[in-house]
Amino acid sequence: MTFQSEFSYETRPVRVVFRPGAAVTATPGEAAHLGLRRLLVVCGSRGEAVARAVADALGDACAGVHAEARMHVPVEDADRAVAVVRAAGADGCVTVGGGSAIGLGKAIALRTGLPLIAVPSTYSGSEMTPVWGLTEHGTKRTGRDPVVQPRSVVYDPRLTLSLPVPLTVTSGVNALAHAVEALYAPDTSPLVSVMAEEGVRAMAEALPRLAADPKDLDARSRALYAAWLCGTCLGSTTMGLHHKVCHVLGGTFGLPHAETHTVVLPYVLAHNAPAAPHALAVLRRALGTDDPPRALWELAGRLGAPRSLAGLGLAEGDVTAAADRVAGEPYANPRPVTADEARAVLRAAYEGGPPEPAGDIPLQQIQRGHGLADRK
Ligand code: NAD
Fold this sequence. Notes:
- This protein has 376 residues and is of the alpha/beta class.
- It has helices spanning 22-25, 27-33, 48-58, 75-87, 99-112, 165-183, 190-212, 217-236, 241-251, 257-272, 277-287, 292-302, 318-328, 339-351, 363-368, and strands spanning 15-18, 39-44, 62-69, 92-97, 116-120, 131-136, 139-144, 152-155.
- Strands 1-8-5-4-2-3 form a six-stranded parallel sheet, sandwiched between helices.
- Its EC number is 1.3.1.32.
């Protein structure tokens, strides 16, 4: 494999604390370290019990618990949360939960500039990114702003013990998708490559152990460690076709986030593989296979995860509409995607059969694929 001798890499100031029990034992210290005295705790309705434990640990530094986070951050939820944070006189927020809770926290930070502490409970990786998302009138907008990047991330593997196996698997594959796309991103770098390889290896090793025994704390720690690495890859690079497809399917067609990532990833990787030899080589090593798209598809099947968009409820007639939307918007990808190719990728994901190994494509086409504008 040739060495990537031209790159840039930006490090953002984020403190990471990782230990079992840290949600309760480390969060108050992180708040003190940041000089915060009145924190609003943000979570979803299902995560309220754990969030209350964090709120209790914060004691007088807790300004309240706002348990209204939902998937894809509807803009009216963001409006309400900003009003709550202002009424509480908070000087920061603690998000307790997965990407939805972190997403609502980021929406607050975007509007108010208040600092965030994230206590993640899934493997989505949002805590390591400056990417925010808001959904309005059926369309999800995303953007990048350093103000939404959590200043402190408290990883507590114990918090993930309650994650049901189906969500464990799909959330884990969501993390894998960040690493996969970071490997062929136009702004990838040797450090991203190292993190992606280690993240993929650790997650692929942890998921079967967790499907067999979801209370295995060692495997939970390994999966959360992988999520940290994969999330860092996401935060450091520009995502491509896979994230664009999932963004359209989630934001416009209402499909569930992690499950959609799990279904789509093998097909996008099969499409991009001929244009991404370095990524393919890294993934072969990390997954111990000659055929990473097929290995990811088999992993999902073996662990009982959904494998078709039809199974997730996408109407057959929406395949073309989604593909046109994907093809019609610019995004960075190692291989250009025509409307027909987007349709073929989506059609294959809709049906859920084994991904076809793609043939070689001309070098000229590969180079044309990079450098487009969208950052997620
Ligand atoms: P989620 O936060 O929506 O959680 C899914 C479900 O699992 C919820 O019902 C939640 O209550 C429950 N849950 C979460 N943790 C649990 C636990 N430990 N035990 C039991 N139940 C638990 O799911 P997600 O996949 O983490 O996040 C999806 C959202 O995050 C999407 O809106 C997506 O766009 C966003 N996201 C953003 C970024 C970014 O960088 N901005 C990255 C990844 C995902």
